[in-house]
C-alpha cells in the first residue's frame, strides 16, 4: 500500500469517527463522570475495532455478510447493551444530589468499567465488521499480503477513532471541571444516557423489522 492510499483510508476513518454514534455518546457519558473513564472507553472501543479487523483479516467476519440472521442477532444484542447502559446511567444520575455532587469522587466511574463498556459496544456493533469487509478490499493490494494489510488498516482505524474519542473525553471533562455545576452535569449525564438508550431501542426496532 502506498502512503497516499493509507492517508485516504485514514481520512475515511476520520469522517466516520466524527459522525455521532454509540461510541461517541458512550465516551461522553463516562467522561462526564470521569475524563479518565472516558479515555478508557475510547481505548476499549479501539480494542474492539482491532478485534473486528483481525476477524475480517482471517475471514471470520464474512459470516455476517453471508448470514442475515447472525447480523440481526448481533445487532439486537448490541442494542440491548446500549439500552442497559443508558438506563443504568440514568438511574445512577438520579442518586446524585446537589450536596454529594460537589464531591467529584462520589461520581467517578472506574477505568475498568469504561474500558469494558467501550470494548463491548464496538464488539457488538456488526457495522464495524461490515465496514472492514466493504472497505478493506479497496485498499488491500492483491499481492498475497491481505492479512498484514488488513491488520494495518485496522490499526489505523483504531488509532484515528480512539484519538477522536480521547479528544471528546478531554473536552467533556474540561467542560465539567469548568462549569462545576452539579445540576448541569446531572442534566448532561441524563441526556447522554437517554441518547444511548434511544440508539439501542432504534437498533432493536430496525433489526426486528428487517
Automatic annotation (TrEMBL):
It is a multi-pass membrane protein. It holds the Pfam family LysE. Keywords: Cell membrane, Membrane, Transmembrane, Transmembrane helix. InterPro entries: LeuE-type. The chain crosses the membrane at residues 41-64, 76-93, 147-171, 191-208. It is found in: Cell membrane. PANTHER family: ARGININE EXPORTER PROTEIN ARGO, ARGININE EXPORTER PROTEIN ARGO-RELATED. This is LysE family translocator. It comes from Leifsonia williamsii. The lineage of its organism: Bacteria, Bacillati, Actinomycetota, Actinomycetes, Micrococcales.
Amino acid at each position: 500500500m502506498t502512503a497516499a492510499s493509507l492517508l485516504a483510508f485514514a481520512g475515511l476513518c476520520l469522517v466516520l469517527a466524527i459522525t455521532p454514534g454509540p461510541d461517541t455518546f458512550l465516551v461522553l457519558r463516562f467522561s462526564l463522570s470521569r475524563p479518565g473513564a472516558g479515555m478508557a472507553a475510547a481505548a476499549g472501543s479501539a480494542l474492539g475495532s482491532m478485534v473486528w479487523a483481525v476477524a475480517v483479516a482471517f475471514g471470520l467476519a464474512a459470516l455476517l455478510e453471508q448470514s442475515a440472521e447472525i447480523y440481526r442477532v448481533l445487532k439486537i444484542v448490541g442494542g440491548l447493551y446500549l439500552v442497559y447502559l443508558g438506563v443504568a446511567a440514568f438511574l445512577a444520575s438520579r442518586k446524585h444530589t446537589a450536596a454529594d455532587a460537589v464531591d467529584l469522587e462520589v461520581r467517578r466511574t472506574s477505568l475498568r468499567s469504561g474500558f469494558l463498556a467501550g470494548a463491548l459496544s464496538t464488539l457488538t456493533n456488526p457495522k464495524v465488521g461490515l465496514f472492514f469487509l466493504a472497505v478493506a478490499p479497496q485498499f488491500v493490494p492483491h499481492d498475497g499480503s491481505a492479512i498484514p494489510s488488513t491488520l494495518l488498516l485496522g490499526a489505523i482505524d483504531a488509532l484515528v477513532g480512539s484519538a477522536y474519542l480521547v479528544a471528546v473525553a478531554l473536552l467533556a471533562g474540561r467542560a465539567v471541571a469548568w462549569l462545576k455545576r452539579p445540576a448541569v452535569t446531572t442534566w448532561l449525564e441524563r441526556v447522554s444516557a437517554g441518547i444511548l438508550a434511544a440508539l439501542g431501542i432504534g437498533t432493536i426496532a430496525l433489526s426486528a423489522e428487517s
